[in-house]
Amino acid sequence: MKENKVREIRETDYHDIYLLNQAFNPNLHVFSEERVREKIEIITKKTKDIIFVYEQDTEVIGYIHGSPYELLFSDSLVNVLGFVVKESYRNQGIGGILIDRLEKWGKDSGYSGIKLLSHPGRIHAHRFYERRSYMFTKDQKNYIKRFED
C-alpha cells in the first residue's frame, strides 16, 4: 500500500527537491543539488519560512514554500515563494492538499492571507488558484539586480 503524507521539509529531501526544480524550470540546472541542500538548511534554521512537502512512499513529489510577508501598509501575509508538483502527479489533488496545508498553517499562525505570483502564461495554475478563491489583483513586472563579486 502506498503511503502519502504532507510534512515539513528535511535537509535529506534535497535530491527530490532539486529534481522537482529542474523539471519545473530547466534553467535552474546551475543551482546544484548541494546548493539546494544548503538552502534547505538555511531556510529551516535561520528564517521563519515554512516548506511543506508531499511525500509518496519515500519520494517527495511536490512542495510549497511559504514566507512571512510584512508590509507597512497591509496586514501580515504569507508569500508563496515556490510551489511545484511533479508533472506526472498533477491533477490528482496533490497541489490542493499542499496549498490547503499552507493556508491552515498561515491562519493558525495569525496571518491574514496568502499572496503569490504566477507567470502570465500559466493558465492552468491561474484556474487552480481562482477555484480556491484567490483573486487576481494586478499585472506587474519583476526586476532583479545581481551583485557581482
From TrEMBL:
GO terms for molecular function: acyltransferase activity, transferring groups other than amino-acyl groups. Residues 4-149 form the N-acetyltransferase domain. Transmembrane segments: none annotated. This is GNAT family N-acetyltransferase. It comes from Paenibacillus foliorum.
